[in-house]
Amino acid sequence: MRAQKLIDQFEQFAPLNYREAGDPTGFQIGDRQADIHRVMTTLDVRPEVVDEAIEQRVDFIFAHHPVMFRSAQNLDFTADPQLAMYGKLIEHHIVVYAAHTNLDNAPGGMNDWLSEQLNLQQVTSWLPNPTFPEVSMGRVGQLAKPQSVIDFAQYCKARFNLTGLRVISHEPDRLVKKVAILGGDGGKFFREAQATGADVYVTGDVYYHTGHDMLAAGLSVVDPGHHIEAICIPKLAALLQHWSQQKQWGIEVVESQPNTDPFTFV
């Protein structure tokens, strides 16, 4: 099957038009017309993931985070393992595609997956896309029963299988019922999250001074990190496998195994 056939199908589910301005999402590396037989889903395209793909005889890597967030100044493969990774991808004819903020915005995509992981109920959307206001990046929903901020943080830790997370709150014992969530780096949107009426906001990569602003605004925040978006690995694999069976593509889908979280809690 041609790589472009998979891309076309996916972009019906999460159109590129849904991406945020400046996001380098979409086709990354390779030949759109290449024949593909084995697809690997991953959160990040890192050197260890590329080595894994080569070992697994993968010919298409489907990632959430674009491999080329920042443009390379050169392609000196001996100077930088990240640059050497590009050489390996090209040498082994591996196609790379990334679905980033279009997947975050898409109904049934990243932020719905995160909401489901927390078992949120009566889920609705917030933070609409400026160009396509019918789709929104954030989600807000209700817990099955109220719990304190600190108990909810422990719940998040368990549901996302974390060894640690950060809590920003002047009221750790305050009861939480309504939860706003936005995967990735969503600290700058805390006022929009607060406007939903949420008792707590779940997002990653909260900046130090933004944390102070959150406290001053009276908002409790749970920062479980950016890596909770690794939920995309099994979710994307299941989606691609479903399409393969439904449309008789005959491709095999595997899930990347290395942990690409750069942080370790000690």
UniProtKB/TrEMBL annotation:
Gene3D superfamilies: NIF3 (NGG1p interacting factor 3)-like (3.40.1390.30). Homohexamer. Belongs to the GTP cyclohydrolase I type 2/NIF3 family. Keywords: Metal-binding. It holds the Pfam family DUF34_NIF3. This is GTP cyclohydrolase 1 type 2 homolog.
